[in-house]
Amino acid sequence: MTGSAGDDFARRREEMKRRINPLDRELLAGNPDRKAFFDAVYNMADGDAAAVPWADLKPKDKIAEWLAKNPGNGKAALDIACGLGDHAEALEGAGYKTTAFDISEKAISWATQRFPDTSVDYLAANLMEPPKDWKGGFDLVNECYTIQSVPPPLHDKFARAIAALVKPGGTLLVYTRTRPQDSTHDGPPWPLMPSETGIFAELGFEAVTRERFEIERPDRRISHEFGVWSKG
Ligand SMILES: C[S@@+](CC[C@H](N)C(=O)[O-])C[C@H]1O[C@@H](n2cnc3c(N)ncnc32)[C@H](O)[C@@H]1O
Fold first, then answer.
1. CA 96 to ligand 1 centroid distance, Å
2. CA 4 from centroid of its chain's CA atoms
3. How many angstroms does the Cα of residue 103 sit away from the middle of ligand 1?
């Protein structure tokens, strides 16, 4: 299994993007939830993390910084759509008893291979049909880049499904790309508009902090929001 940074890693990633972008457009027509696409990416990658465009192989800095200040002390956490497991491991490392799931069985088997001694409970599951006993079951829920990864008509459903998993009094982290209200955007991904990042206020949450920031790339700046929400 390959997975180190460097020029060759970047080259393999670009090569994979060239292969998967047309495939994504092709699959989207018949698979609006993109499961077929995510499965195809994890399967085609064949153990090379460079070929999974969203795999940083480490948690996002802002999530890691928040966890350093908010240890779990055994509280229950859920990582939504965990991919290769870096956020799940960060949650567990911060003292949360962590469950992590992804719709792709391949992502789950890959995550458990990467972290053979893990105490995270990894499983394949669909956010739209989660186990019934997860409802209101988690003190902390971490959502990073999942809502934006499906087409806009699904955003509201995904946000509501995520919100339902948080325990009353619990915390929801939402890390996402953003775009101006009603702007057009040719995804994927489909960054969230203010009406979409703000939906949690309508779902019984209070914003603790909502940090807007930009990630610099050589050719562009990518707008983001990292929201910390408390469920009433
Ligand atoms: C852009 S990746 C983000 C992965 C990870 N959260 C991260 O921060 O690196 C989106 C992930 O969502 C998963 N996914 C998409 N739809 C899902 C669903 N309905 N239920 C569970 N996982 C889903 C995909 O398989 C993929 O791993």
1. 20
2. 21
3. 7
Pocket lining for ligand 1, CB < 6 angstroms = 33, 38, 54, 81-83, 87, 102-104, 107, 126-128, 144-146, 149-150
Of 17-21, 107-111, 206-210, the range with the lowest mean pLDDT is: 17-21
Residue 56 lies in a domain: no
Angle separating helix axes 35-45 and 7-28, nearest 10 degrees: 150
pLDDT of residue 5: 59
pLDDT at 2: 47
Å from CA of 126 to ligand 1 middle: 10
The residue among 88, 82, 8, 112 whose CA lies nearest residue 50 is 8
Work out how many domains the chain is built from and give that number.
2
Looking at the fold, whether 80 and 148 belong to one and the same domain comes out as yes
What's the confidence (pLDDT) of residue 4?
Answer: 53
Cis, peptide link before residue 189, omega less than 30° from 0: yes
Look up the pTM and report it: 0.95
Q: Which mutation among 56, 61, 146 tests ligand 1's pocket best, with the greatest number of atoms within 8 A of CB? A: 146
